[in-house]
Each structure stands twice: as C-alpha cells, then as structure tokens.
User: Which sequence fits this backbone?
C-alpha cells in the first residue's frame, strides 16, 4: 500500500512538473513576450508599413531587449511528399526559446533545425542534408538540430534568412518576435501598437493561453489519481495495522499493566509502521520516477510524434525527493494513527478477559 501510494505521488508530481515545462516550451513566453505580425484580416490591407519602418520602430521602442524578423514560405523538402512551411530568421535567433532535443541551433546559411516528425517522415538524421525548394530555386540544407516544436503537423524547417532567400529571392518578412526588457509586455504593446499601421501587436500570456486548458485538464486528472490512490494506500495501512493491533491486543495490555503509558503505546505502534513506510519509500521513489519517464516518453511519441528533451525529465531536485520520501512515512503514520490511538485507549481488563 505504501509503495503504491508513494509511487503514484512521485509519478504525478514528476509528470505535472514536466507538463509545466512542456507548456512553457511550446508558448516560449519566457523568451518572446511580444509578437508583431502583418495583419492579413479585414482592414489590414491599408497603408502597411515597410519592413525597414517596422524594424526602426522596434529598435527605438523603449523596452526592446532583442528581436528577430521572421519570414515563411511553403516549399518542397526532399523526402516529404507535400509542401511544408520553412521559416527564415533574420538576425541572431538562438534565444527565441525552441528547446533542443539533440544537436544545436543553426548558426549560419545552409543549416536548419526541425522537429522529430520531420526527421522520421524524411528518414534523415542530424548531419544529413536535404534539398529545399523547387527546380530553379533549390538549395541544400544541412540538418544540425532536432527541436521540440508542435506547430501545425510538426513538419517544418527553421533556418537562416539567407537560406530562405536562396530558395525564394522574393521572400519577405511577415512577423517579428520581441524580447521585452525593463517594461511590462502590456505597456510595450500599448506603446508600439499605435505606431505600426498594418501590423497586429500582441503580448503573449504567461504559459500561453492556447495551451492552458488541455494542460489544466491533464494536471487535474493527475491530481485526482494521486489523491484516490493515496487514500487507498492510507486505507490499506489502516486495515493492516488494525489487524496487527487486534492480534497483539493481549501483549499490549500486559505492557500497559506493567506501566506503559498510552503515549508510549501510540509511539510503539507508529514506530513499527515507520520502518515499513521508510522501506516503501525507498522502493517507490525509483518506481515512480521510472513510470514518469516511460509515460512522458510514450505521450510524446503517440500524442505528438516527438522525442522529449532531457531537461523535461529533470524535475526531481533533492528537496522534492526528500519530500516524496517523507510522504511514505506520512502515508504509513497517517494510516496507523487511529489503530494506535485505539490500542492506547483500550482498557486492560477488556483486553485480558477470556473470550
């Protein structure tokens, strides 16, 4: 019972921590707080500012930490049957927050990174070269990194701006990602939005509003599972200690007759289950951590066709491990407290009287 309870608490704690990292990795809200996007909706086709004008405004805007311009085109990539989006970044872009699974971020023309799904679909590995573009405007791109990316159907490339214009010389930027420093994103948006005609300026909510609901549902289900199985563990300990206490009722009565105080009886019973709780915690911690790793890996492979970055597994710092180990003692002592109290309060005469 203790092993099941602690293993479940460990699994739920680890998976909740990992999902929180996943949520922030997908929204990238720690790196990119504001996005400036060309408005393609109604009213967005009026007097639209040029790329140079938008760049100048962003550079001059108070609170701009770093920013990068982004362009996109749909084109063919060798090994993929349908056209896929290829994103080109103008400016240093390694800071924008895509978490690496393997390899490194691209550092110049002719290099690109891609999600796991593209590597699987194209049958390539890090270090391989793929052809990007159509006849007449074709370039070879070397894949240098595998990233955690869940945009669209996960088939895409992210590369340098020069690589994008090598495929299509007429490619243009259509958005900008901004890291805000020294100002709140809301204040930054309010100041910049009034000056950028034809562009939508938006602040990213912490955690990414588009990801909040599904993650809240999953984390709520995990909390419910942990609570139910912890209660089952408490009930199991309670049942076992009740049986043991009743079996040894006469021994307990003799000890009380010899002068053992009620609090000493409680301490005796609790000490006996504390050993079980400690052993259960030692067994349950690695079991819960192994289950967490296996389930997270399976979720990534089946639900999102992606590998999981190593840092998403590293959610068990020493203080958390100590607290989880103590939860084994808490489950054992919590389940044994009521039977121990009953044994301490039982009258000696009733326990020693023949059946």
Assistant:
């Amino acid at each position: 019972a203790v092993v099941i309870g602690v293993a479940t608490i460990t699994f739920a704690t680890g998976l909740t921590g990992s999902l929180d990292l996943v949520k922030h990795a997908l929204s990238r809200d720690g790196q990119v707080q504001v996005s400036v996007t060309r408005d393609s909706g109604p009213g967005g086709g009026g007097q639209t500012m040029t790329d140079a004008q938008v760049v100048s405004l962003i550079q001059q805007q108070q609170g701009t930490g770093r920013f990068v311009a982004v362009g996109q085109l749909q084109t063919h990539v060798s090994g993929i049957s349908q056209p896929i989006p290829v994103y080109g970044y103008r400016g240093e872009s390694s800071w924008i927050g895509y978490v690496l699974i393997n390899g490194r971020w691209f550092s110049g023309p002719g290099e690109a990174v891609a999600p796991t799904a593209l590597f699987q679909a194209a049958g390539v590995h890090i270090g391989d070269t793929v052809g990007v573009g159509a006849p007449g405007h074709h370039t070879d791109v070397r894949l240098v990194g595998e990233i955690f990316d869940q945009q669209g159907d996960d088939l895409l490339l992210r590369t340098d701006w020069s690589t994008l214009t090598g495929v299509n010389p007429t490619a243009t930027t259509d958005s900008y990602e901004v890291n805000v420093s020294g100002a709140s994103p809301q204040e930054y948006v309010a100041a910049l939005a009034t000056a950028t005609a034809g562009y939508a300026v938006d602040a990213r909510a912490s955690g990414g509003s588009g990801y909040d609901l599904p993650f809240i549902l999953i984390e709520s289900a995990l909390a419910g599972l942990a609570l139910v199985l912890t209660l089952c563990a408490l009930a199991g300990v309670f049942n076992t200690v009740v049986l043991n206490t009743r079996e040894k009722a006469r021994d307990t009565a003799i000890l009380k007759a010899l002068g053992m105080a009620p609090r000493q009886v409680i301490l005796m019973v609790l000490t006996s289950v504390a050993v079980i709780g400690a052993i259960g915690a030692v067994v349950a911690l690695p079991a819960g951590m192994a289950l967490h790793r296996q389930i997270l890996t399976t979720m990534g492979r089946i639900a999102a066709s992606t590998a999981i970055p190593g840092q998403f597994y590293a959610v068990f710092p020493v203080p958390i491990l100590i607290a989880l180990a103590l939860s084994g003692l808490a489950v054992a002592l919590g389940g044994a407290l009521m039977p121990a109290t009953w044994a301490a309060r039982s009258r000696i005469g009733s326990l020693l009287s023949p059946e």
